[in-house]
Design a protein that fits this description.
This protein is of the alpha/beta class and 158 residues long. It has two domains: 3-36; 54-155, 2-Layer Sandwich (Nucleotidyltransferase, domain 5), CATH 3.30.420. It is built from four helices and seven strands; from the N terminus they run ααββββαβαββ. The protein has helices at residues 3-15, 20-36, 88-108, 131-143, and strands at 54-55, 68-73, 79-81, 84-86, 117-125, 146-151, 154-155. A five-stranded mixed β-sheet has the order 4-3-2-5-6, with helices on one face. A two-stranded parallel sheet has the order 1-7. A hairpin with a 2-residue loop joins strand 3 and strand 4. Helix 3 packs parallel to helix 4 (131-143). The radius of gyration is 27 Å and the shape is elongated. The N and C termini lie far apart (65 Å).
Amino acid sequence: MTRRYRERAASDSALSPNLTPLLDVVLQLITFFMMLIHFGSKLEGESKSIRLPVTPAALPGGDLGLDRLVVSVDSSGTLLVEGNTFDEASASAWWAKQAKTRKDGQAALGVDPETELPTLVVVRADKDASYGSVRRLLGTAQDQGFVRFTLVVLRGPG
């Protein structure tokens, strides 16, 4: 190897330091702090009258759609929305009003209103609510065009 080539190679390596160890440490620090961050304990649509079931496999929903509708079902099967209570008969009218509002919104945006609404319905059902009452609630919503549902539970010891 000629002397000129060795000097040039030595000067090039001095100008470009190895960043791999630095990036490795930075990514480890980011991971460490992300695991320690507490994002808050306030749940969407939280209510004292609704006691959510606890399961060890509860994971946060991956789909955070823009159009979300949060409803709660108490232990007697009554629909609770934004401080209002609806029995089965009035809940049907409420679902119809929500569907019409969302379809009108789609039409105003120039989107052809579909029969299936893109709204994500977040259902917070009390752990003592019967399966039948929750199923009737979801059936009424499906009749109005809502098709995307998620059930909220609390994560507990497993």
